[in-house]
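#lab-general

N.A. 3:47 PM
ok so I finally got the sequence cleaned up, no stray characters, all 291 residues accounted for. can someone with queue access submit it? mine expired

B.Y. 3:52 PM
send it over

N.A. 3:53 PM
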Amino acid sequence: MAYKNQPLGTRFHYNRMFNIEPIRLQMLQLIQIGEICIEPTFAGQAHDQFCHEVSFIISGQGVFEYNGERVPVSAGDIVITPGTGHHAVYASDQEAIFYAFAGFKFTGDHRFPEDVTRWFAGGAQYVGSDRGGFYNYFRKCIDEFYRGGEIDLLMVEACLTQIIIWATRAMSGRVQNSEWQPEQQTPGQLVYRILKHVEHHLLEPLTVAGVAAQLGYSATYISHVFKEKMGVTLQQYIADCKIDKAKELIAMRRFSMTEIAERLGYLNLQSFSRAFQKRTGLSPSEYKETL
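B.Y. 4:20 PM
back already:
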């Protein structure tokens, strides 16, 4: 696979990284947290690790490289990367890779159990699988930074601690085994879960495949059930919800159109404007003038 490179070595469909000053917690130091979506055939900028990292593949597939060793990853995978060494992320030829990550250091003030810290000791990166709600801890932690204002450090440390422990359990197979199957649900129950998932994750690049991976079903199955029960495709529903959210953000008059496009996970302002006009008949600026 030949990976394309921009001047800085990357091309992102969505890039929400909180490049924060390190936050000192009781047992940890949070260095960075965020979500990234790299377009097909593009590569994330290679870099030297300066902190431990836990990543979760929300949707898509690609490769995580550590010290020259490349490991394929796909939706539902958890990746542990040690705090030293050379690291890069690549999207596949066919689809973008969308993942959440947290970079941190152990402070040593209060020790984690050795069976947790040994996974971050260095020498190799590790990949495990999860379908049990691991991403929820990422979302709760990241939401503290999306909110702005004063950050609840107790919430941040609680979520970050659970991210670390859950990740290490996944590596040893204590979270999920290969025989895992989603709980059987009626089509109505599944559609309700889909609706709530879209509602809670609108400020992300949502895809049918990504929603399916998070709920533990195939994209074909949830697409069929959703269309049958709702009368519209899931892809159309997601697009409509994003435009409704865009209208709310425009009405607030706190964000530029570029900021709104970024918040909603569009590739750029142009793609946001095209989507908005297709569904409303007005450009975002024209819509704003009607308010």
